[in-house]
Specification:
With 349 residues, the chain is α/β, with parallel strands linked by helices. Helices cover 24% and strands 21% of the residues. The strands form five sheets. Strands 6-7-8-16 form a four-stranded mixed sheet. Strands 2-1-15 form a three-stranded mixed sheet. The longest helix has 27 residues, at 34-60.
Amino acid sequence: MTGLVNSWCGFHGNLEETWLGDTYPTSFYDHFEPRVRDAFCQITEWTQQDLAKIEQALIKHGVTVRRPTIDNIDNFLDTDGRLMRPPISPRDNTLVLGDHLYQLGMKYSRDPWQTALDDYAASGSQVTVQAEGPWACLSPPCLVRFGRDIFVDWIYHQHVWGMVTEPLVELAKNFRVHVSMFDGHSDCVFCPLEQGLLLSTEYKSNYSKTYPDWEIYWLNNNPVRSRIVRTTTGGFYQWHVPGDTVKTREFADHIEKFAQDWVGNASETIFDVNLLKVNDNTIFSVGEDQELFEFLAKKGYNVEVFDFRCKTFWDSGMHCLTNDIRRSGGCPDFFPNKGSPGLDWLQDD
């Protein structure tokens, strides 16, 4: 491996380099009316403080951390002159397959990760950027990397399936690509932790075809509804942050009218499974599942828990906030019996 990009799955080898998202500086909100501006500023302060602690911990473990460049508000406005969602969740647009990095569907006028992309290309790694077209229809969080195998969610992609098949056919020249069913971002449904071990919510009930004979740890063995992070409001406002500063009707109305895609729907998200494996002994989490942590301790893992106070506002857990760029080790083959590269339907539940 000569280039800086080298990551085949999210749990094989030690994490050596990662992206960590960020939010806008408070000056980007100066033009809003006071209550809206103050709420955004408070969220910015908490977010940046908490991300700084995560960054420091990653560096302590020997991980190179890359952050986006956010220096000009004009680069982050849509065609209507409104601020787009900041690059808080690099996992949403960036896919790394071996030494090839795909930057997909990024709508900013200048990519906040451009410096990193240039460095990777200069190092000999392959970098593909596609803001529109077939590749841009592929959602990285709805694709799970298992070395020589890739599992792609059909349900999330069904409305653009005619476009998505083009990149899948291309990937199937070098990978075993399996069309699966997990109905959304996989990292809020399950978490492969090591060969033969999977953590899962009850959003998905059957892994007999995808990962046969693997041990499945079911979070609490409770229905999904009991695992949901509850919010303090109803209707559209499925997010919550601490304190009174942001609990204003003006701010909620602004989010509903102009920034719905900033917040997602955290009432559906189970942060306890949205984990980042740093090395063979360390896992990072913004969840709080003590039963899970005790189970992981028995497996030899230490879970470092971070207080990401605005996780339900950004609808982002530890896995979403980061993106593996380089891990030690080569390309594992966890399912050698699956044969040669190709494209198939698993038709799982």
